[in-house]
Amino acid sequence: TLTLSSAALAEVSLPAGFGIETVAGPEVVSEPMEMAFAPDGAAWVTGRTGQLWRIDTTTRATQSVGSVATEVSGDRGLHGIAFHPDFPRIPHVFLAYHLTNAPKDKYVARVSRWTVTGSGAASRIDPASEKSLVEWEGDQAGQHVGGALLAHPKERVLYITTGENNQNANLRKYCDDPNNKAQSLGDPRGKVLRIGFDGSVPKDNPHVHTAGADPRVFTRGHRQPWSL
Q: What percent of the chain has pLDDT over 70?
């Protein structure tokens, strides 16, 4: 675990033979969101306010490997992380976050690819290497923004979750609407998207030839898919 309060630890019920060990507390890793393990065994952790840390799970040494300027209102911020399946030979890491310069009354979510320089404790993301792969807009007043990532090692594609961004207090009415954002194939919200590692659209995506559909859509109808 990364950080659990004593009260939270007291509520955890573990099967025999399992234990909990705090590797990095909140004084080191603030608002951790997602975690990915590099081939060397280190855990790379995103913090919602834009920080990215590397934790040596053997020595427990923790250092910053970079940061991303991100918008943090609501449940927005820096969320998902995934390594290229051939990392570190191909030294790319994917991150999902929200832009700070979005239009008024909107948010803009982005998934980008960065190049990692150095290795081990000397690893850093090169801030000049960012390549934007996907962006989508949502309503600033709404919640549920998704942002989980999965780099599939066999399919050689990147899966991305997006929340439905609902701001309707009448949830039943929203969910029963067959034309809501999550159901609409033309709206990227409430979906799992599937793209190439360079941002291209895979030819075998299910809606590549569907009129009016976003060709990146893989599945639809999701509310708030935090993880993959």
A: 96
- The owner of tokens 């150095």 is 118
**pLDDT for position 4:** 57
* Proportion of the chain above pLDDT 90, given as a percent: 75
Torsion of CA 6, 43, 33, 196, to 10 degrees: -160
Angle at 82 between CA 46 and CA 101, to 5 degrees: 55
The CA-atom distances, in angstroms, between 189 and each of 21, 122, 154, 184, 192 are: 37, 37, 26, 8, 9
pLDDT of residue 2: 45
Cα(105)–Cα(160) distance, integer angstroms? 24
Strands (E), 68-130: 81-83, 92-98, 106-117, 124-125
| CA–CA dist 209, 6 (Å, integer) | 53
